[in-house]
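[audit] Reproducing an earlier prediction to check determinism. Same input, same settings, fresh worker. If the tokens differ from the archived copy the diff job will pick it up downstream; this log only records the rerun itself.
[audit] input (364 residues):
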Amino acid sequence: MNYNKKIILESGDVFFGVALNDCSDIIGELIFNTSMVGYQEIITDPANNDKIVILTYPIIGSYGINSDDNESNECTIKGLIVRDYNDFYSNFRADQTIKEKLNKKQIPLLNEVNTRALVKVLSEKGSMNCLITNMDVSDEKGLQQIAEYKNKKTEHYKSSENAWESKVEDAKYHAVCLDLGLKNSTIDQLNYYGFNVTVLSKNMTNSKLLSYKPDVLIVSSGPGNPNDYKEVIELIKSLIGKIPMFGIGLGHELIALANGAKVVKMKIGHHGGNYPIKNNHTGKIEITSQSHLYCVDAKSLNNTNLKVSHYNVLDNSVEGVMDEEKYIYAIAYYPDMSFGPNDCSYLYGTLIANIERFKGEKHA
């Protein structure tokens, strides 16, 4: 194989691949996603912002890219690593290849990488930064560049600066969404269940947010270390008990922090469409789609009013919290039915019930 790129990991491990497009050197955090489908949603998911993503399913590209299934307007990832790229898609909805989509933002696409071995390194040593560079760059120089990059502060995903709306006919409820990396499918599902949606910047004030007269606050999924979102945490804290809240992914972690819990970084995080969780209320196992590198510290919940509603069957990590008295419900996974399982679509019914209970008790 005529490799033309090398992947130097922070651990010192080195892998090789074939770049399928012209690209400059990049450094970023390396994660892997275990989904068998949904690569378009993965590369446009704001939760993966600035990440170099490995897709563990070997054959990628066979159904192309279409104009309807993006989770955001642009590709959010920094690089894509695959085992066997297919440029000849077969799908009546497709209008371009992954390579064509990535080329628009000059995002590297590496093929012929031993993804199984690469994922094994991450599973054993944890997520880490890596450098994608030319073959003639020495490992020592690559490691030096990674060390210098590690000291730089990464930027958060740029949320909507101006408020905008997504309305439906005969809407029954009004949701305001704090855009921390809001997915299109979340808006679609809220619309489907009868919500008018107003999307707001993360730099929102308490009074301004409440002036929209929402029935519920949605704290969206998104990227980054939740502990860095100080202003958003304070905003959430000021709204506890004043409005029903529903947190997703990053939003789940921020709601937990606002209630006094702690959030810690996981070894490799959860990225994929097949994570089993247990519902503590029903006792049922639900298969979920997830993309998060941080989780709520279970022991820290003892000092809060939050209760664990869901936990991960594989590693016992917290996947959902709730406070019925304060109308709070938050989950670490995705409830929407884009490319993943639909076991959790009932959560929108739970959300509506929470809103109705708030209205009833408020006016009692």
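[audit] rerun output stored. Observation attached for the diff report: The mean pLDDT is 93.
[audit] end
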